[in-house]
Amino acid sequence: MFFRLMNLSTMFQIMINEILWDLINTGKMASFIDDIIIGIKGEEEHDRLVEEVVKRLAENDLYVKLEKCK
């Protein structure tokens, strides 16, 4: 964290919530700071939702480390 920059994790959480707001409101996913949890049983819908999340992150100059994904 840079010096004099306070509440960075809170600001990051707010940014993620704004980016994924409509997806979070469906109840199919949740976010907590740098974790995005998708809870869907159907594989096709899960894949579609993952693609949408990655697309939105990329549009906002954010990225996902594949080695941290399960």
Written overview of the protein:
- The protein has 70 residues and is mainly alpha-helical.
- It is built from three helices and two strands.
- It has helices at residues 8-19, 21-25, 43-59; strands at residues 29-32, 35-38.
- It has a two-stranded antiparallel ribbon with strand order 1-2.
- The model has no long low-confidence stretch (mean pLDDT 85).
**Major sheet: arrangement of strands:** 1-2
> Helical content, roughly?
40-55%
Which residues sit in consecutive blocks of at least 5 with pLDDT less than 50?
A: none
Topology pattern, helix = H, strand = E: HHEEH
Describe the main β-sheet briefly. Answer: 2 strands, antiparallel
Number of helix segments?
Answer: 3
N- to C-terminal separation? 27 Å
Structural classification: mainly alpha
The residue-averaged pLDDT reads: 85
Percentage of β-strand residues: 5-15%
Can you count the beta strands? 2
CA radius of gyration: 13 Å
Shape: globular
